[in-house]
């Protein structure tokens, strides 16, 4: 049998273990499950191509909840079995078997599904923007590529996307000569990016998203930053921040990406991480203070992800900081 990149990452009957894995792989989320938990099964296989990943997931229960923004990850799904509904502040997709759709990475999403099997492509946002600038021309280099929650621009484009994914998972991932060649993988990467830009509505090719106008002014970015710094302990979303900055959400997204190479919500998490750091430094573990409680106070619901982000930012673990 030929070596394959498609490998099983997790297979578990434990819902808690499943959603801990999903939080680490995708984004933090808060969900409720229904259905027979004793029959629960979650599995996820993935082929890792470096800058992008192709995976197939199975989740056997009914789910309803919210997912945090994906930020620097772009996600595109092909529902194979079950029912899946996703809502963003600007759009909704109710998908059945065979449907493909994209996600807006900059907003919180309301999600519900029932006994699904789904193929997904995850790709780094910076890779798409870099290759898009090459494909569109250098004059677009300063403009971030924005995706909406939505379906392909046409049925033919959806069919082409699904055929490309079959080629990637069945031919490239299972061919050692192909995935052992950096040149081949770069060509596949360019093909995936070119096809997703041609398939899903985005600010590079979609008149609807291009018409959202220019980015907000630097003054609007500063207003948004001050607002998030002053209200970091509150439940904020992109719409609330944009309203405080007196601009639209899309304009604020563009401005942040251009000025700071990050999204507004990523900046908010950075501010909250700073607050958690200060609280950890000031806390006394002898008084019962814990890393989990301080992380939760600042909106970090997943301890593992909080610890990873904290260590990357401050060069030590949060527990080391708490111990002084």
Terminal-residue CA separation: 54 Å
Describe the sheet with the most strands: 8 strands, antiparallel
Strand content of the residues, in percent? 15-25%
Q: What is the average per-residue confidence, as pLDDT, rounded to a whole number?
A: 87
Form type:
globular
| Count of beta strands | 8
Rounded to an integer in angstroms, the radius of gyration calculated over CA atoms is 21 Å
- Low-confidence spans: 138-142, 208-213
In words, what does this structure look like?
The chain has 324 residues and is α+β, with helices and mostly antiparallel strands. Helix 7 crosses helix 9 and helix 7 (218-230) runs parallel beside helix 10 (264-282). It has helices spanning 15-25, 125-136, 155-172, 176-179, 182-199, 207-210, 218-230, 238-245, 249-260, 264-282, 291-297, 303-314, 318-323; strands at residues 6-12, 29-34, 42-48, 52-67, 73-87, 92-95, 100-102, 109-124. The protein starts with 5 loop residues before the first strand and ends with a helix.
Task: Provide a brief overview of the structure.
Helix content is 44%, strand content 23%. About 3% of the residues have low confidence.
Q: Layout of helices and strands, plus pairs?
A:
Elements: E1 6-12, H1 15-25, E2 29-34, E3 42-48, E4 52-67, E5 73-87, E6 92-95, E7 100-102, E8 109-124, H2 125-136, H3 155-172, H4 176-179, H5 182-199, H6 207-210, H7 218-230, H8 238-245, H9 249-260, H10 264-282, H11 291-297, H12 303-314, H13 318-323
Antiparallel strand pairs: 1-3, 2-4, 3-4, 4-8, 5-6, 5-7, 5-8
Helix pairs in contact: 2-5, 3-5, 7-8, 7-9, 7-10, 10-11
């Amino acid at each position: 049998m030929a070596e394959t990149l498609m490998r099983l990452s997790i297979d578990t009957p434990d819902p808690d273990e499943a959603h801990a894995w999903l939080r680490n792989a995708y984004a933090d989320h808060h969900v409720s499950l229904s259905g027979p938990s004793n029959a629960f099964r979650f599995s996820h296989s993935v082929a890792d191509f470096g800058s992008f990943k192709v995976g197939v997931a199975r989740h056997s229960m009914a789910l309803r909840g919210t997912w945090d923004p994906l930020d620097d990850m772009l996600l595109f799904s092909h529902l194979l079995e079950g029912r899946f509904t996703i809502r963003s502040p600007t759009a909704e997709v109710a998908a059945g078997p065979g449907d493909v759709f994209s996600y807006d990475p900059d907003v919180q999403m309301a999600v519900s599904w029932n006994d699904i099997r789904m193929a997904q492509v995850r790709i780094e946002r910076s890779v798409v923007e870099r290759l898009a600038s090459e494909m569109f021309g250098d004059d677009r280099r300063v403009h971030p590529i924005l995706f909406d929650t939505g379906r392909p621009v046409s049925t033919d484009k959806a069919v082409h996307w699904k055929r490309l994914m079959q080629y990637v998972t069945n031919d490239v991932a299972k061919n050692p000569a192909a995935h052992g060649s950096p040149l081949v993988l770069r060509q596949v990467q360019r093909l995936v990016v070119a096809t997703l830009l041609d398939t899903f509505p985005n600010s590079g090719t979609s008149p609807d998203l291009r018409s959202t106008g220019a980015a907000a002014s630097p003054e609007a970015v500063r207003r948004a930053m001050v607002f998030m710094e002053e209200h970091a302990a509150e439940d904020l979303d992109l719409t609330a921040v944009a309203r405080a900055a007196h601009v639209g959400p899309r304009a604020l997204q563009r401005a942040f990406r251009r000025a700071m190479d990050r999204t507004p919500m990523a900046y908010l998490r950075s501010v909250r991480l700073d607050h958690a750091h200060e609280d950890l430094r000031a806390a006394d573990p002898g008084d019962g203070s814990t890393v989990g409680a301080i992380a939760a106070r600042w909106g970090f619901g997943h301890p593992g992800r909080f610890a990873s982000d904290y260590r990357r930012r401050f060069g030590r673990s949060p527990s080391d900081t708490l111990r002084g």
